[in-house]
Structures are given as structure tokens and as C-alpha cells.
């Protein structure tokens, strides 16, 4: 089990974070701090669970006996079986293990008066409180910002929500794709003349979660400077809009809208306009029959001349259609056809390596399998380290990517099992006796 | 105005990769001195430009990523410029650089050469980090989305169509957020220890962990994802969620469950549009029936498609949300200017631009907090706008010395 007693010492040792997050965008922020020794207590509703822990309709569980599952709504009522029927408690979805490793887990029913009391006590002994419920949830428990601040004036409270906790959309609901769509990120991805391609995953759950992680460490830094707690109202849609500033300014200054023919430009580049700059089909297909591709770009004349040599067509850079970047941009369709004919019978990694050796920008379109199994750079950098899991064996996860020389990131354990740390948190931290705990369990409080 | 990075001095070696991290430091109150080549950062030359006229002081992409910074133009390849930079770093809190591995060492500006400043947090944000077999490879933002896995998950359901990467420097953003996360952690630590450190961030490492379920699903289940138009890639093909509206927009009808209240409203809405069809059947009042159909069948999804096709985009968004259904409208970025919600949250902050004789409303920044105060604090600098000021005030050079350096082409 993740033992709070043997946490490695890190920058954030002694920092305690009360983690009321669920799904995807919320859990990232505290998880990024587990790598530096923060004690993160992930709270799941008593009698239920974070709906990423078990999501049988989305993906199989890692291991363990099959049981009945509800629709997997972590804040909703518990249907069917789960934990109380004697099944082993350690399984969870692959993605849950990635989002929650290194954390502690407790169960708590905050709708019960005694549960709310425990929540308040936990707020009293924590440095930060994070949640990603809709805006009305904490106030409905009586936990307005003013009340939270009164309980613990040092505490940093960060809410993560689709649209923020004020303004006329404050009650609107949001998932990652909602934020990407509303902000304009989805529109800015796709082939001209086709429907938006958007992002093939919840970019704003991932990047949005990392930005939340940034806000949280900023919050802890500021609180360390001032000794004062405060409130961070993080709207993921505003976070997404802050990644699109150039389009906002282009509209304000030049009146150029992004709903225009030719935008988005697929994988071509508009600012600066350079060519070639695109994806090209290679030989072979992936396991589900999708073609393999390579991305190639020439940003300098030198790169283009090297590419012509590499393709065995040195005369191409003398051809008036392709002799200058301006000409290449004007004749991109023809140029892309020439490159495609060259890449089509070739292996994508061969194209990438030959181009790179000649100083040309080139990158295979890598799948998850490619990155985990064949990417020598990620292997060298140790980006898929192994966590030892005493119950189900070792497993790989995605590492923390910033390498700090003096205080490196570490991992101190697998994702916690359901309510694994009730005894530590309620017993040791809050001093609840064994008898009281048994009674709280009976009443469905924990 | 106070901010989370108030009081810090940051030196940023101009580069398109690190400028967003520098912008957030400046937006948070730090003094950020950007060291540019004498012909300007590459970020000044990419466009779009004011009225599409190429001018290094009129690049809108540069304006956005460099709010509130100072610009010092010097040719860092020349020894006297390297000496000046070394002196600046002796008193800096943070150094941000993105040169290819080995470059700063050849300038005598690697971490070892400047670590006499014990408090310095020296951050290298590069394509592949400082080591590894690909560390010399040439990349740009789209190449990172290819190699990092985003393109493999993004594109169209038609398997013959190319994978697609999103626009807007998102690979660099993913690297930048971790560079700044590391810097902020190091600042937290420095408050106790008084010591800085070296931070090595690889954009490829950051991108490669940013594809949500794709890697864990491969690791645990051996799954390869299908690309699907406008929605999540997945291990098996799923029905469309990106649905066209009556007025030519698209709605993301995100997968979810429908409670009794929301369902009743939805059916009422469908009946109003005359598209309820078989969903008016009483059997769908049973949540289990409609949920099972939504997951495995076609009746509910077809009904939703008909409803959205019969409604305008704005109506779909607001009406669905008012029923607790989290559908979203695919908007253009600039359409958000007209939405009262963001105005109510004070999201747009005016930044004066004498270049065009007016102020422009900029996005505030990702977080609303009166203590972090992350917001643009002034326009981006013109090329070399602060060269003389910094050399005089920070390094104590006399105007004649600066003029001599300028004449020799070392500074501008």
C-alpha cells in the first residue's frame, strides 16, 4: 500500500492537498505535485467512486474479479456491486492509475452532517483544496469560499470548471471537448473544406489539467510568500482561449476571422507560409488498417535543396515552380504530390531518419505503441518508468517530464485502492477512534 | 499591481519555443528581459502582421507571446555580447533558453559557467532535452504533434485521410507549461534553501504524455486507436458526435447519460421541431432502456442528430445546457469576444498599442485570482527598445560604450 510514513522527502514534503477532483481535468493538478512529495488525499464519495476508477463501458479494468457496475457516475448513487461483496479492491482503469498514482484515497459522504464535519476538519489541516465539480456543489454543502477561508485562512482553494464560478455560464456543464469546442481550439484543427477535426482526445483535460497543476503550484508559492490563503477560479475554457491569442489579435487588428476558406490549413503552415510543410503517406499500415504517415517541413532554402538531393531530384530546386519558398507555397499541391510519390513506397522511420540526417524537419506520425515500444528518445529519457505494484505486479506509467537537477521528480507508489487510507487519514490525522470509525462506516459517512 | 512572480528578474534568450513561459512570468509580475538577435527574434518574423505588412515590430504572434517584456538586442555569437549576458545572469533569478544542446556551452553560457549565481534557476526548454539519440534532430511545432502522438489520434473517420495536428503552437505550449511548472517548483524550494538549479525540459517528452487514454490503453490492453472525425480516437469505431446544425455550425454532443428531467425536456424539444419519431415511445422513459440504446443502438443517437440538424447552433448550446446536457458549440476563437459571460468575468484586458493608435482587448490569462494576478501588463517591446536602458542601469555601461558596441554590431 502507499504508506504515508515512507514518503520520500521532496520540495513539497509537508504540503497536504485535499483532492476532491474526479474524471480527468481535475486530478492532473495534484498528481503533478505528488512527484515532489506532496501528500495528496483523493476523496471519493462513500459508497461510490470516482467514475474513472471503474468505467466498464469505456475500457476493461486492469485485473480482478468481474463485478456488476453502475453507469459509473462517481457523484451518483451506487448501483450494483463493487467492493462490499468481498472482491479484491485494487483494480481500476488504466487511465485512473495514470491520474492518481502516488495519492492517498479516502471515502467520505459530505452530504451527511458528520461527513461534512470531517471535511471541514480536513480543510483545517490542509494547504490546498482542489475540486472540479460544477460551481454549485461546494456551496450546496455549505462550503462557500468565505466559509472555507474562515475555517483555514492559509488554505489555497482552486476550483477547476468548464466556464468558471461567475458569469452567466457558471452553471453550464463541461467536459474536455466542451472547452476545446467553445474556445475555438476545435475549429482551428482540420482540413480546409471539411468539418473540424478537433482534437482526437480531450486536449483540454490533459493540457487543461497541466495548466491547473501550474495554477496550483503558483498558488502554493504565493501562499508561502504571504502566509495567506486565497481563491483561484480556473475556467478551462478561458485556459483554452489563452492558447489562441494570436487569432484573437488577428481579428482585432486585421478583422480576419478563422471562419474563412483555407482555414484551418490541415498540416500546412500559414504563419509563416512555408512549403513543403505537410504529412505524407508511407508504406505500411497500423494494426487497425490506418496508413502510416510522415511529417516533413522545410523552413529554409538549404533544407529544401537537401531534400531535393535526398529524393534524387536535384533539378527540382531549379524548377521555377519550386525555386523559392514563395513559389513553393504557390505551388504546394504539385509539390506535395512529388513528395508523396517519394515517401509512398518507403518506411516512415527511414524517411524520418534520412531527412533528419540531412538536416530536414521530419517526424513519423507515432501512435501510442510507437512511442512506448520503438521511440529510442523516450526510452533514453525514461519517460515510461515502472511503478512496483505489490498486488498486481509492476506497471509502466507516463513520467513527469521536467528534469530538475537538484530536486528531481520521483514516484512513490501506485494509484490507491478504494478507501485505502481511511484509517491513516481519519485515525492518525484526525484522531478518530476505531469505535467512532466503525460507527461512521455503519452510518455510511465513510 | 502585485503578482505571483512579482520581484523576479528573468532573462529569456528569444525563441519561439520558450516565449509563452516567459510571457506568463511577465504576466505574473516578473521583469522579463528578452535577449534577441540584432535582426530580431524569429518570433517577430512569422506573422500575421498588422495589415499584412512585414515588420518585426508589427507581428501579432509576437505581440501575443511577449506582453510586458523588455527587449535587449545583442549578437550572442560575439564575445562582448556573451560577456554582457553573463553579467546579466549573475543577478537574474531565472534564465530561459531553447538553443540546440551544446550551443550555450560554446558561448560560455552553460549552467556550469554561470552557476556562481547560486540562486539562478536555469531552464533549457528544447525539442528533445539535453541528451538522447534524437537530441540533434530538427523539429517545429507540427512535427512535435506528429512525433508526440496527437496526430495519430486526430483527424477523420475515413482511414484514407491524413492525420491532423491542431493549429496554434500547441506542442510548444505543452513544453512551456512544464518548463514553468518546474520553474515554479524551483522557486518554492528556493524560498527555503536559497538555491536555484538546472531544469532540462524536452518538448517531445511533454507531448508524448499528452494523449490521454492512448498510452495506458496500449500498455494495458494492447489497443490501437481509430481516428474519428471531430471526436475521441478509440479502440473501436463509434457513432459521430460532431453533428451539423441548421445554420452550418457543429455541435459536440458529448457522450453522457440522460436523467429523467433532462430526457423529458429533450423529447419536448424534439416534438417541437417535429423530429421525435420513435423516441416519443414510452419505453424510452426508462433510463436503462435509453442508456442501453445510446451505448449500443441507433434510435437515441439518430434522434439527437435530427434535433441538432433542425436547430440553430446557439439554440442547441443554451437549451441543452439549461437542461443539464453538456453539449458544446464549435465556435471560432474570435466569436468569444461577443459573449457576455467572458465580459462579466473581466476576461478581456486592454493593452495600449501606439503602433496602431488604440488599445486591443487581450485574453486575460488562464486563471482568475486576485493574488496570482496573471494578466498582460503592457504591450510587447519593439526590437531593442530596452537595450540602452538595461546596459546602462543594470550593467553600468556609459552611453559612449553602448554607442561603440552598437557601431560594432554587437548590440542594437
Explain how this protein is built:
The complex is a heterodimer of chains A (446) and B (412). Chain A has helices at 25-34, 94-100, 113-124, 137-140, 145-151, 176-183, 203-226, 236-241, 245-254, 301-310, 325-330, 332-343, 348-357, 368-374, 376-380, 422-429, 434-442, and strands at 16-20, 39-45, 104-108, 128-131, 156-161, 231-235, 277-285, 291-297, 361-364, 386-387, 395-396, 402-404. With 446 residues, chain A is of the alpha/beta class. A six-stranded parallel sheet of chain A has the order 3-2-1-4-5-6, sandwiched between helices. In chain A, helix 1 crosses helix 7 (203-226) and helix 6 packs across helix 7. Chain B has 412 residues and is of the alpha/beta class. Helices cover 36% and strands 15% of the residues of chain B. Strand 6 (231-235) of chain A pairs antiparallel with strand 14 of chain B, so a sheet runs across the interface.
Amino acid at each position: 500500500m502507499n504508506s504515508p510514513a515512507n514518503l520520500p522527502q521532496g520540495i513539497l514534503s509537508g504540503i497536504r492537498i485535499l483532492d476532491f477532483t474526479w474524471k480527468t481535468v481535475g486530478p492532473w493538478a495534484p498528481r503533478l505535485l505528488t512527484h515532489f512529495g506532496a501528500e495528496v488525499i483523493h476523496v471519493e464519495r462513500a459508497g461510490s467512486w470516482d467514475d474513472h476508477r471503474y468505467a466498464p463501458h469505456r475500457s476493461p479494468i486492469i485485473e480482478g474479479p468481474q463485478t456488476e457496475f453502475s453507469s459509473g457516475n462517481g457523484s451518483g448513487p451506487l448501483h450494483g456491486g463493487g467492493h462490499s461483496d468481498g472482491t479484491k479492491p485494487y483494480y481500476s482503469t488504466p487511465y485512473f492509475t495514470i491520474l492518481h498514482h502516488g495519492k492517498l484515497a479516502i471515502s467520505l459522504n459530505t452530504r451527511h452532517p458528520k461527513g461534512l464535519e470531517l471535511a471541514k476538519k480536513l480543510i483545517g489541516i490542509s494547504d490546498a483544496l482542489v475540486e472540479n465539480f460544477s460551481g454549485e456543489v461546494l456551496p450546496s454543502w455549505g462550503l462557500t469560499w468565505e466559509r472555507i477561508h474562515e475555517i483555514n485562512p492559509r488554505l489555497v482553494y482552486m476550483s477547476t470548471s468548464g466556464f468558471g464560478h461567475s458569469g452567466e455560464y457558471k452553471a453550464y456543464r463541461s467536459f474536455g471537448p466542451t472547452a476545446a469546442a467553445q474556445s475555438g481550439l476545435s475549429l482551428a484543427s482540420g482540413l480546409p473544406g471539411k468539418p473540424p477535426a478537433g482534437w482526437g482526445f480531450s486536449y483540454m483535460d490533459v493540457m487543461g489539467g497541466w495548466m491547473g497543476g501550474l495554477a496550483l503550484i503558483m498558488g502554493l508559492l504565493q501562499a508561502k510568500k504571504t502566509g495567506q490563503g486565497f481563491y483561484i477560479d480556473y475556467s478551462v475554457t478561458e485556459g483554452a482561449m489563452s492558447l489562441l491569442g494570436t487569432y484573437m489579435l488577428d481579428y482585432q487588428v486585421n478583422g480576419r476571422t478563422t471562419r474563412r476558406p483555407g482555414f484551418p490549413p490541415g498540416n500546412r503552415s500559414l504563419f509563416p507560409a512555408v512549403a513543403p510543410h505537410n504529412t505524407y503517406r508511407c508504406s505500411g499500415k497500423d494494426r487497425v488498417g490506418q496508413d502510416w504517415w510522415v511529417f516533413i517541413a522545410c523552413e529554409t532554402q538549404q533544407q529544401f535543396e537537401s531534400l531535393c538531393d535526398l529524393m534524387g531530384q536535384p533539378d527540382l530546386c531549379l524548377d521555377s515552380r519550386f525555386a523559392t519558398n514563395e513559389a513553393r507555397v504557390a505551388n504546394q499541391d504539385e509539390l506535395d504530390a512529388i513528395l508523396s510519390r517519394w515517401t509512398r513506397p518507403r518506411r516512415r522511420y527511414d524517411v524520418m531518419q534520412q531527412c533528419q540526417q540531412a538536416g530536414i524537419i521530419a517526424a513519423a506520425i507515432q501512435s501510442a505503441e510507437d512511442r512506448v515500444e520503438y521511440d529510442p528518445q523516450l526510452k533514453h529519457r525514461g519517460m515510461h518508468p515502472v511503478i512496483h505494484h505489490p498486488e498486481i505486479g509492476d506497471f509502466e506509467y507516463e513520467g513527469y517530464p521536467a528534469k530538475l537537477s537538484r530536486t528531481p521528480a520521483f514516484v512513490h507508489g501506485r494509484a490507491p485502492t478504494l478507501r485505502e487510507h481511511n484509517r491513516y487519514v481519519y485515525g492518525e490525522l484526525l484522531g478518530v477512534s476505531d469505535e467512532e470509525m466503525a460507527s461512521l462506516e455503519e452510518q455510511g459517512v465513510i | 499591481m502585485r503578482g505571483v512572480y512579482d520581484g523576479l528578474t528573468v532573462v529569456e534568450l528569444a525563441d519561439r519555443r520558450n516565449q509563452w513561459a516567459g510571457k506568463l512570468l511577465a504576466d505574473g509580475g516578473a521583469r522579463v528581459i528578452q535577449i534577441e538577435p540584432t535582426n530580431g527574434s524569429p518570433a517577430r518574423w512569422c506573422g500575421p502582421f498588422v495589415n499584412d505588412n512585414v515588420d518585426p515590430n508589427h507581428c501579432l504572434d509576437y505581440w501575443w507571446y511577449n506582453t510586458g517584456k523588455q527587449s535587449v538586442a545583442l549578437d550572442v555569437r560575439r564575445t562582448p555580447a556573451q560577456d554582457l549576458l553573463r553579467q546579466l545572469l549573475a543577478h537574474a533569478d531565472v534564465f530561459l533558453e531553447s538553443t540546440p544542446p551544446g550551443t550555450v556551452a560554446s558561448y560560455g553560457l552553460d549552467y556550469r559557467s554561470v552557476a556562481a549565481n547560486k540562486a539562478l534557476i536555469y531552464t533549457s526548454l528544447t525539442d528533445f532535452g539535453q541528451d538522447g539519440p534524437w537530441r540533434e534532430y530538427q523539429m517545429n511545432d507540427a512535427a512535435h504533434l506528429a512525433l508526440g502522438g496527437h496526430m495519430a489520434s486526430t483527424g477523420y473517420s475515413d482511414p484514407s485521410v491524413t492525420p491532423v495536428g491542431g493549429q496554434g503552437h500547441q506542442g510548444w505550449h505543452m513544453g512551456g507549461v512544464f518548463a514553468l511548472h518546474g520553474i515554479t517548483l524551483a522557486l518554492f524550494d528556493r524560498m527555503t534553501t536559497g538555491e536555484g538549479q538546472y531544469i532540462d525540459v524536452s518538448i517531445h517528452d511533454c507531448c508524448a504524455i499528452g494523449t490521454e487514454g492512448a498510452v495506458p490503453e496500449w500498455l494495458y490492453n494492447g489497443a490501437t486507436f481509430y481516428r474519428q472525425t471531430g471526436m475521441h480516437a478509440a479502440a473501436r469505431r463509434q457513432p459521430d458526435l460532431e453533428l451539423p446544425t441548421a445554420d452550418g455550425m457543429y455541435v459536440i454532443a458529448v457522450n453522457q447519460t440522460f436523467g429523467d428531467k433532462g430526457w423529458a425536456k429533450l423529447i419536448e424539444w424534439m416534438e417541437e421541431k417535429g423530429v421525435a419519431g420513435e423516441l416519443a415511445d414510452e419505453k424510452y422513459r426508462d433510463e436503462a432502456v435509453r442508456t442501453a440504446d445510446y451505448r449500443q443502438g441507433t434510435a437515441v443517437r439518430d434522434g439527437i442528430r435530427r434535433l441538432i440538424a433542425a436547430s440553430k447552433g446557439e439554440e442547441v448550446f443554451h437549451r441543452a445546457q439549461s437542461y443539464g446536457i453538456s453539449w458544446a458549440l464549435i465556435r471560432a476563437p474570435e466569436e468569444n469576444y461577443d459573449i457576455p459571460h467572458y465580459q462579466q468575468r473581466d476576461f478581456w484586458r486592454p493593452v495600449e498599442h501606439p503602433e496602431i493608435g488604440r488599445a486591443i482587448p487581450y485574453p486575460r490569462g488562464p486563471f482568475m485570482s486576485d493574488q496570482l494576478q496573471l494578466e498582460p501588463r503592457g504591450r510587447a517591446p519593439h526590437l531593442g527598445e530596452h537595450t540602452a536602458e538595461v546596459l546602462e542601469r543594470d550593467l553600468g555601461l556609459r552611453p559612449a560604450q553602448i554607442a561603440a558596441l552598437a557601431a560594432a554590431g554587437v548590440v542594437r
